[in-house]
Design brief:
The protein is 15% helix and 51% strand. It has a single domain (2-74), classed as SH3 type barrels. The protein has one helix at 2-14; strands at residues 16-23, 29-42, 47-53, 58-63, 67-76. It has a five-stranded antiparallel β-sheet, with helices on one face. The chain is built from one helix and five strands; from the N terminus they run αβββββ.
Length: 88
């Protein structure tokens, strides 16, 4: 989990598109999803990532512990919103 969070932080800092494998509640996955990371939120015991999903053309909430893989792509993005993820 720390590796996924660090990968998300690095992608946000570098303004790079992130590709993730996200596992839905029912256990299914759509495969790679290409997202622009913007912020984290803590909804009780579920930390989540808010990101622009390029294929769905909208902002989406991804629960961190359901992201099974995260990789930084070489593709830059121009932020649509303020990036609130801090690089620490």
């Amino acid at each position: 989990m720390p590796d996924i969070i660090n990968t998300i932080k690095q992608a946000a800092h570098e303004r790079k598109v992130l590709k993730i494998i996200y596992i839905e509640k029912d256990g299914t996955s759509e495969g790679w999803r290409y997202v622009e990371p913007y912020s984290f939120t803590d909804g009780g015991n579920e930390e989540a990532l808010f990101a622009w999903d390029r294929d769905k053309n909208g902002i989406r909430r991804f629960i961190i512990n359901r992201i099974s893989e995260a990789e930084i792509t070489s593709q830059d993005f121009t932020p649509r919103y303020n990036i609130e993820i801090k690089w620490i």
